[in-house]
Write a structure and sequence with these properties.
Helix content: 25-40%
Bound molecules: flavin-adenine dinucleotide
Largest sheet: 7 strands, mixed
Shape: globular
Strand content: 15-25%
Structural class: alpha/beta
Radius of gyration: 23 Å
């Protein structure tokens, strides 16, 4: 029999991104014993990649903003497919959670006059709403949560992969994982388990997502009998790099458009004005004074059409490319350098507000974004679908199993607004931690069925003990290719059926 070291916790958190860390902090502050497991090194979760900011109606930049407007924007952005209670809690609690981060030491950009947390424009948000730290907001979020959480006695198992959950009757009572470096198995017995494992974007070939995004939490929950919802809802972010090929898919933050970047086709035309849904606008307005064109959806709120929702902008880009108005490498142009016409210190402004974008394009594509346009196109970005959770407690349909962050579903409906993920992590991460701690206090210790544990270990070892067979990387590469081609932005019944057949073959 394979050796398996055992650890016992009240609450086990799987995942150390924004959601997992916030959940672990909350649970451990209720004086329960918390274990935290993550696939990569602590501090390296996908959340560090988040750039543009976190949405919270603090009204620091435009006083007309409040939680009701944020709620309405989130519902409209999600095509009203959202869980409305989650959208309400999110809009109401996000400002509290952002201020809490500030109290814990997060150093946000400030407004010039009043010195408040600065907020920037982002797609689908009626008012400037994204609290940010240049274009490195996720890094600051993780740094702050780690600094805060590390002193609370949370036990961490980094570079460990959870292979399966363990159940006693209906209830989840633990997980089995392995140490990625040493290959040793560990059993984590727990009274409550929180999944905070992120998304599934690595199932596609062109993706902005980190290597960790293989949908582990979705699969763990599904096999434990939990409901998954909205799994067809995948977000394709309109602006990923398209050239050179080796970096295709890497994200170009919406912050570029939030800071004034415009989209043009190969005729130099701002094509987004050609297709503005009625839902968003009544008229198009020129503002000669600022040399700037807006769509206008009421008397006061003006936003460029480049900041319509991501699903819509992605479809418009695809249309330009398909109809022959794309760039040499199959994208469109995104130009922020034009703001030099408006701002005397534009170069410095771009480097200060978008430092990562400046370096990313300079180093990877030899493009100076302060002087020339970027080539961009859609990239797989976010999984709206996931584990069905109760809005208040974040418990899944399986007792003792909770979920928060990108692996949970409901808040974003059919399409997530930019910035609503980071605020999702801190609002619902906190809730998951709180309710999981309560659950662990209300439910007695469990017993572990050793046969279940042995089976998980056998399944995990099977691919490495098998003689011959196909290389897993080749299978993953084929899966990614087919998902991209057959179940990407545009989906047709015949192609989806073809994809299903191929997936069963790969399985
Ligand atoms: P993650 O941060 O991905 O953490 C998942 C954790 O689960 C990791 O620690 C991982 O190791 C662990 N894990 C996974 N599987 C297992 C397993 N089997 N066993 C053990 N551990 C496991 N959103 C915004 O709101 N604003 C932005 O500006 C923004 N910018 C973005 C920029 C980029 C380039 C990308 C890719 C996304 C961006 N997003 C943004 C989206 C946002 O970053 C993510 O949705 C969010 O960080 C997800 O956080 P999470 O805590 O749910 O998961």
């Amino acid at each position: 029999m394979v050796q398996c070291e055992k650890f016992e916790y009240d609450v086990l958190v799987i995942g150390a991104g924004g959601a997992g860390l916030r959940a672990a902090i909350e649970a451990s502050s209720a004086n329960v014993k918390v274990g935290l497991v993550c696939k990569s090194l602590l501090g390296k979760a996908h959340t560090v990649m988040a750039e543009g900011g976190m949405a919270a109606a603090m009204a620091n930049v435009d006083q007309r903003d409040d939680w009701k407007v944020h709620f309405a924007d989130t519902m409209r952005g999600g095509q009203y497919n959202n869980n409305y209670r989650m959208a309400q809690l999110h809009a109401q609690e996000a400002p509290l959670r952002v201020r809490e981060l500030e109290e814990w030491g997060a150093v946000f950009d400030r407004t010039k006059d009043s010195g408040l947390i600065s907020q920037r424009n982002f797609g689908g948000h009626k008012f400037p709403r994204l609290a940010h730290v240049g274009d490195r907001t996720g890094l600051e979020l993780i740094r702050t949560l780690q600094d805060h959480g590390i002193h609370q006695g949370i036990e961490i198992h980094q570079e460990h992969t959870v292979a399966d959950l363990i159940k006693e009757g209906d209830r989840v009572v633990g997980a089995v994982g392995y140490d990625r470096e040493r290959g040793r198995f560990k059993l984590f017995q727990a009274k409550a388990v929180i999944l905070a494992t992120g998304g599934t974007g690595r199932a596609f070939k062109i993706s902005s997502n980190s290597w960790e995004y293989t949908g582990d939490g979705h699969a763990l929950a599904y096999h434990a009998g939990a409901d998954l919802i909205d799994m067809e809802c995948i977000q394709f972010h309109p602006t990923g790099m398209v050239w050179p090929l080796s970096v295709r898919g890497i994200l170009v933050t919406e912050g570029v458009r939030g800071e004034g970047g415009v989209l043009r086709n190969n005729e130099g035309k701002r094509f987004m004005f050609d297709d503005i849904p009625d839902l968003y606008t009544h008229q198009t307005a020129d503002n000669e004074e600022e040399g700037w064109r807006y769509t206008q959806n009421d008397r006061d709120a003006r936003r460029p059409p480049e900041l319509l929702t991501r699903d819509h902008v992605s479809r418009c880009i695809m249309r330009e490319v398909r109809e022959g108005r794309g760039t040499p490498h199959g994208g469109v142009f995104l130009d922020i350098s034009w703001i030099a016409e408006k701002l005397p210190n534009a170069e410095e402004h771009i480097k200060r507000k978008l430092p990562s974008m400046y370096h990313q394009f300079k180093q990877l594509a030899n493009v100076d974004i302060t002087k020339e346009p970027m080539e961009v196109g859609p990239t797989t970005h976010y999984t709206m679908g996931g584990i069905r959770v109760d809005a208040e407690s974040q418990m899944s349909t399986v007792p003792g199993l909770f979920a928060a962050g990108e692996c949970a579903a409901g808040l974003h409906g059919a399409n997530r607004l930019g910035g609503n993920s980071l605020s999702d992590l801190i609002v619902f991460g906190k809730r998951a931690g709180e309710y999981a701690a309560n659950f662990s206090q209300e439910h007695g210790p469990s017993t572990i069925n050793q046969t279940q544990v042995d089976e998980v270990i056998q399944r995990a070892l099977a691919p490495v003990e098998r003689e011959g067979g196909e290389l897993p990387y080749a299978i993953q590469a084929e899966l990614q290719e087919k998902m991209q081609d057959l179940v990407g932005i545009v989906r047709r019944e015949e192609e989806m059926q073809q994809a299903l057949d191929i997936i069963s073959e790969l399985k």
